[in-house]
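INTERNAL AUDIT FORM
Audit reference: QA-55
Scope: verify that the stored structure record matches its stored sequence.
Auditor: D.O.
Record contents follow.
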Amino acid sequence: MTAQEHLVGGWTIYHKLTPKDQEVFKEALAGFVGVTYSPEVVSTQVVNGTNYRYKSTATLPGSPGTSWQAIVEIYAPINGKPHITQIHRV
């Protein structure tokens, strides 16, 4: 990563998920019902914790062939459980 990518408040470019990125996504969506989100790439922003933007494919269970793109935004505090802050259909 470059120095720009480590600046507090700056977003990284979208990149493949690391095991930590995958774990944050899985933990934040634990128990989420309705639409299924499959993350493809992620961008992060260091704040007092970390903000994540996951570009994802969304599908509706029971509706084969129905999918769309969405951004799932998650906040992971320094101490505490990550949680969804917003989901945008794109």
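Auditor finding: record pair retrieved intact. The CA atoms of residues 51 and 75 lie 5 Å apart.
Action required: none
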